[in-house]
Write a sequence for this structure.
């Protein structure tokens, strides 16, 4: 897990392609579970660790995911997204496959 930014309120992580951002019906390990474990161990937190998902990326996609470490941060970030004071930019890297010439 590559942590790009962390403070008392937010944590930004580089999500790899194929990694699950948050738990789903598959029951596969998720990035959010890994982050909770990381926070629990690093800060020696007893009990459950709060981690709010601010936005998601689909499983096949890679990119930066931002999580809230407090309910107040989650509330404020959700409001910023609603009010469109935050701008998300998506970049795509595409590989074109060379096709064989068609014969008629």
């Amino acid at each position: 897990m590559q942590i790009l930014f962390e403070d008392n309120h937010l944590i930004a992580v580089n999500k790899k392609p194929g990694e699950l951002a948050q738990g789903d019906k598959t029951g596969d390990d998720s990035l959010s579970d890994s982050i909770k474990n990381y926070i629990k161990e690093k800060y020696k937190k007893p009990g459950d660790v709060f981690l709010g998902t601010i936005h998601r990326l689909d499983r096949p996609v890679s990119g930066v995911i931002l999580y809230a470490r407090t309910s107040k941060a989650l509330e404020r970030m959700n409001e910023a997204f609603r009010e469109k004071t935050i701008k998300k930019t998506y970049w795509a890297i595409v590989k074109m496959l060379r096709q064989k010439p068609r014969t008629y």
User: Anything to note?
Assistant: Residues 2-82 form a domain with the Pseudouridine synthase fold (CATH 3.30.2350.10). The mean pLDDT is 90. The two ends are 51 Å apart (CA to CA).
